[in-house]
Amino acid sequence: MASRLLTRSTAARLLSHLCRRKPDPIHCLLTHGAASASLLGPTCDLPAADSALLRYPARWFSSSPAAATEAPMTADGLTVDSIASKGWTILPEAESDWRSHAAAVAQSIKLIKKRLKWGWILERTKQLAVVLERPDLWDDPVFAGRVSREHGELMGKIKSVNQFEQELIEHIEMLRLAREENDNELESESMSALSDMRRSAKEKELNALLSGDNDSCSCFIEVQAGAGGTESMDWAAMIMNMYRSWAQRRGYTVTVVEEMPGEIAGIKRATIKVDGEYAFGYAKAEVGVHRLVRISPFDSGKRRHTSFAAVAVIPILGDASSRYQIKDSDLRIERFRSGGPGGQHANTTESAIRIVHVPTGITATCQNERSQHMNKASAMAVLQSRLDQLEIARQAQMNAEHTQSLNEISWGNQIRSYVLHPYRMVKDLRTNYEVSDPDSVLEGDLDDFILNYLSSSLDEANIYK
């Protein structure tokens, strides 16, 4: 049976609220029958007599695997999936319509699961859980640590989404109970909570986009002035200030690494280091040429000028990140009898090992050691070195792709236009997303542009799979 329970904190809040308004909150709950009372689960915090009145086959929370996969459900059978499929109209956030808020949050949860590849995450977590149960796992501490970290990261994502689903169902139930009680204060609190969830859902949507290999890394952002002389140098300085403001808004640490000032104004080239979680994942959406149209402050004739600046974003890969992460499921291990001299048991047991990395086809073989265990360790070391070499080459190519926008900075290569005259608009030419307030964008309000680009990139990737 799907869970319909409020968490302990939410139920306690409900009881506290009712205590302020009713001399007997338990009686108040009982008047609404088993559906309301069952939301509270066991009543160990209540007096024994009252606890007996609320004895229902329910629990606060369950840690069993089966219960963890149950979809939260309201007393009248609403789940997140059913809310998303009802087609309720989604109104602006300012409207106090609980169906609108619930539908918006449910749609966001559905989108988040799609972006996270929810089915794959659940299956991968099961596979890793089996590996973690192996008694010999910690014979290889490096491999064990890698499996443990991956399992922890995936479980964190699952827990976060499940808690968000549960929170939505709880607020809907609180709203229902408030209306049954004609409790305007509690109804207002529940409506406000749904509205807050709707806003935080947008942030979670964005976070779900950041699942790339290096998205969690810090990064370097490099800006270079293009065609246009002093105009473009001034524009490059404006762009760099925009990214510094954006990074500081997000709580990242910004350090100027390099800055080459222009002869009159602005910069020819500059690089900043942005330290923080998912800095690269966000900033990679800004790679390309940025075009500015404005009345030049350097032209005495007050003519309109067009300027260009290029942006490159490079992830900062530490020593651990630069090593190829080998997954146990990607390996095919073949055992055979070794040939040639090798001791008493060399040709009588299958001690030789050949390890094939299936995704790349790279193999490593070892038959020099006397034991299968030693041969396997040596073959893994060789395979790791070969894959590390491949990873270094891949990263070099990736960095070249991130910096290729610096090669030609002119017409026909821009990703975004900033128009300050004769009208005011910022438009991303990759997604057609635009706003009419360029000042806020130049002050670092870039998240909507980043979200739209990352969303469209993911949708295109799904189409071509």
Automatic annotation (TrEMBL):
Domain Peptide chain release factor stretches? 176-286
Tagged with keyword Protein biosynthesis: yes
Q: In the UniProt record, which is one GO cellular component term? A: cytoplasm
By its UniProt entry, which InterPro entries does this protein fall under? PCRF (IPR005139), Pep_chain_release_fac_I (IPR000352), Pep_chain_release_fac_I_sf (IPR045853), PrfB (IPR004374)
Q: Which GO terms describe its biological process?
A: translation
What Pfam families does the entry give? PCRF (PF03462), RF-1 (PF00472)
- Which keywords does UniProt give here? Protein biosynthesis
Family, according to the entry, reads as follows:
Belongs to the prokaryotic/mitochondrial release factor family.
Protein name (database record): Peptide chain release factor domain-containing protein
Organism of origin is Urochloa decumbens
